[in-house]
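Collaborator request, handled under Task 6.
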Amino acid sequence: MILAELIENRIIVWNIKDSRSLYKEAYYGKPLGIPKPKDFYFNAPLILDLLESYYLLIKGKIKVLKDGKELKEEEMLKICEKEYVNFREKFLVYTKLKEKGFIVTAGIKFGSDFAVYHKDKGPGKEHAPYLVKVMKPSEKIDTLEIVLAGRLATTVRKQFTIAVADIKSNSVDFIGFDWWRA
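C-alpha cells returned to the collaborator:
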C-alpha cells in the first residue's frame, strides 16, 4: 500500500519509488517541480489532487494520512466536497473515464474540468485530445459559453465535450462538439 500525506488541499507521495509507480501506472499526479517529465524516472515526490487521491483511496492503491492518522473514505469525501464544487458529479465523470481506460488530468489551464488523453498517451507523449466540462442534468448552459469553450478548444486543437453527470442514475452522457470552418 502506498502511503500519502494530506497537506492543505493536496496529497503528497513522499517515497520516490512509489511516486514513479503511480505516475507510470496512469499518469497520476505531478512530480514536484517537474512540469512535464520526459519519462517515469524522476527524483521528486508526487503531488496528487484530491479527486484523483479519492479515486486511488477507493481503489485501495493509497492510504492517506493527515497528522499521522489514516483518513477513512468518509473523511476524505467530506474534504473533497468542501474543496470542489459539484464534487460528486466530477468524481462520477472521472471514474467513468478511468473505467474506459482514459488518462484524466486537471483541465483548469484550459478552462475545463478535465483534459483527457487516450490510454498510454499521457502528458508529454501527446496533447490531450479532449477537454471535458462537467454539468448536472438540471444545469443550463448558454450558447455564448459553448462558443467560448469551443473556440478555446479549437485554438489548442482539442475537442470540447460536455459530460452530463446524473448522480441518481449513476450515468454520464457525453456531448462532443466538432467545429467546422466554411
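The cover message to the collaborator said: "The longest strand covers residues 159-166. The helical segments are 16-26, 50-58, 73-83, 87-99, 143-155. Please let us know whether this matches your experimental observations."
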